[in-house]
Design a protein that fits this description.
Elements: H1 2-15, E1 20-24, E2 37-43, E3 54-60, H2 70-86, E4 91-95, H3 102-116, E5 121-125, H4 131-135, E6 142-146, H5 156-170, E7 175-180, E8 185-188, E9 195-196, H6 199-209, E10 215-218, E11 222-227, H7 235-245, E12 248-253, E13 260-265, E14 271-281, E15 286-291, E16 299-307, E17 313-316
Parallel strand pairs: 1-4, 5-6, 8-16, 11-12
Antiparallel strand pairs: 1-2, 2-3, 7-15, 9-10, 10-11, 13-14, 13-16, 14-15, 16-17
Helix pairs in contact: 2-3, 6-7
Length: about 325
């Protein structure tokens, strides 16, 4: 009932003439902004649901639940709250996720509260399911609300379908766009790129591995090895190579990036929309993305969730055997 309550509160405030901001930090079931993001919206008049709010900005966390990316969520919350303050809203409503079980969830919620510094906290619960969380909020103004018996929890399948409909909505009108890697800043789950490795450095890699990878590129922090079809590399080989190169080694298989969800941002960092990675041509230094975003893109944030051609979640980047919703915090 969190979203229904937020919608009610936002509409009441709007009817009274208030300028209302909404932050949706429910990564897996977001209504303001695409799934895997913390969205910032604004409403000036009552809406039937929060998907009708004007999306002002969004921060890509890259996962559908906070359990794998706690620091990233907290960082994103700081960024979005700072941007919300610039909107000069009269009322700011923050919707969080439903992860409340256990000490880790309780500490996470406490840290969110420390960042948001809310005037009042509304806790919706069945029986005493928020007891662990509320123990960490001593000194805060908290109102307890019983969850309406008519509101049923979405099961995992319904949550997944809700996300897929949202992906499709945000990808409507998309087409494949090409971006020179040198023109954009890449951030997120993809290993940081560099410059193509010199022949001498490639020779060291080939000697250590016993074969020449599809591509190698290097930056001051690590060497990125791109494996081609049927090329394999063991953990032992990686350690040997790190000793030879005297720096960390990251490994990516060519084609692994296909289907990864990304967000695109303009010069001022503002969210422009989402897209789906088609491929990265490491040799020609081109990244191709299926996106409805047109015009200049300055930053591309790479997430971890992978989608198929129909917009269905299939896995995580680098973890092709695990479903994208199969992580803690997806409630």
């Amino acid at each position: 009932g969190k979203t229904s309550l937020c919608t009610y509160l936002a509409n009441r405030a709007a009817l009274e003439g208030s300028k209302v901001g909404i932050i949706d930090a429910d990564l897996g079931q977001s209504d303001v902004g695409p799934p895997t993001t913390i969205g910032l919206g604004q409403i000036r008049e009552p809406v039937s649901d929060l998907t009708k709010a004007e999306v002002v900005d969004a921060y890509l966390v890259g996962y559908t639940s906070p359990g794998r990316a706690l620091d990233k969520v907290l960082e994103g919350m700081k960024v979005i709250i700072e941007r919300a303050e610039k909107l000069d809203v009269d009322v700011l409503i923050i919707n969080t996720d439903g992860w409340v079980d256990g000490a880790e969830a309780a500490d996470y919620k406490r840290r969110l509260v420390d960042i948001a510094k809310p005037d009042i906290i509304l806790g919706i619960e069945r029986e005493d399911e928020l007891s662990d969380v509320l123990k960490t909020l001593n000194g805060k103004q908290v109102m307890h609300i019983d969850a309406p018996p008519t509101i049923k929890r979405r099961d995992r399948e319904k949550r997944r379908l809700h996300r897929e409909l949202s992906y499709r909505r945000y990808l409507e009108g998309a087409k494949v766009q090409s971006y020179p890697i040198s023109w954009v800043k890449l951030q997120g789950c993809l290993p940081e790129l560099g410059l193509p490795a010199t022949e001498e450095r490639v020779s060291i890699v080939s000697e250590a591995l016993g074969f020449t990878p599809y591509h190698c590129e290097e930056n001051p922090r690590h060497m990125l090895i791109i494996l081609g079809k049927n090329q394999e590399i063991t953990d032992e080989a990686v350690k040997k190579l790190e000793e030879a190169l005297e720096k960390d080694v990251k490994v990516l298989r060519k084609g692994d990036e296909r289907g990864v969800l990304v967000s695109l941002h303009g010069d001022d960092g503002r969210f422009l929309g989402i897209g789906v990675l088609r491929d990265i041509d490491f040799r020609r230094r081109i990244i191709r993305i299926y996106t409805p975003v047109e015009g200049k893109v300055s930053t591309i944030c790479v997430g971890c969730v992978k989608l198929d051609e129909e917009g269905r979640e299939v896995s995580f980047l680098g973890e092709e055997t695990q479903e994208a919703s199969d992580v803690k915090g997806e409630e």
